[in-house]
Amino acid sequence: PTGILTLPICLAIALPYGWACAFYQHATALNSKASDSKLLLELRQQAMRWPLQNHAVTWLLSPALTIIGVCAVMIMPPLMRLINPATPLALQVATSMIFIVIAVLGSPVGMLMSANFSVTILLLLSQTGGDSAIASVLLQNGAPSSTFAVIVCCLAYLCMDPIVKACYVLRGHHIRSDVTADDLHTRLRQIRAGS
Questions:
Q1: How many angstroms separate the CA atoms of 60 and 192, rounded?
Q2: Which of 58, 90, 118, 148 stands 20 to 30 A from 183 (CA)?
Q3: Alpha helix (H) ranges present in the chain?
C-alpha cells in the first residue's frame, strides 16, 4: 500500500524512482518467511544492487513513464490551442513531434506498445464506419479523446506488467544466487545424485 504514495513522489524527484520501483517489484516477487526488519533490509539491498541494470529495466519497461508520455502527447496540442488559439498548425505539429520523441526516449517499449494499440484501435474504429457509439466516445472531432488515452495506457500496462514482474523475479534470483550460491549447490547435488 505504501507504493501508491511513494512511487509518484520518487518519480517527481526522478533520481530514486528506479530504486523505489525495484524495492516494490522485489517485494511482490520475494517469497520470504523472514521477519519484517530482515525482509526490509533484504529488499533494500536487492534494490540497491546493480543500479545500471535496475535503471535500464525501469527505463525500458516502466508503465509509469509510459503513462506520463502518453498523457504529455495527448495533452499538448489542446493545451497549445487553449493558450494561443492563433498558433499555426505547423508549430502545433512540431511541438507534438518533439513531445513524441521525448516520450519515446523516456519509455521506448511502452511507447511502442502504446503506438501499436493506438493504431489498432483507430483501424478497428475505421472499420466500423466511425459512426458507432464507441467511436464517438473514443474520438472527439476526429481526435483521440482522454478516454482513448486511458484505454491505450491500460492496455500497455496490462502487457508490460507481467514482463516487469518476470524481470524482477529473475533479477532477485540472480542476486540471491550471487550471494548464497544456492543454484550451484542444487546443481552439485543433482550431479552427485546422477553419478
A1: 41
A2: 58
A3: 3-13, 17-29, 36-48, 51-61, 63-83, 89-106, 108-127, 133-138, 146-180, 182-194
75-117, pLDDT tens digit by residue?
Answer: 777 777 788 888 787 887 787 788 788 878 878 888 888 889 9
**Calpha distance 28→25 (Å, rounded):** 5
pTM for the full model? 0.70
On whether the CB atoms of residues 11 and 64 are closer than 8 A, the answer is yes
For residue 114, which amino acid is it? Answer: S
The CB density around residue 20, as the number of other CB atoms within 10 Å, is 20
127, with CB counted inside 10 A (0-12, 13-18, 19+), is exposed
> Distance (Å, rounded) from C-alpha 146 to C-alpha 35?
44
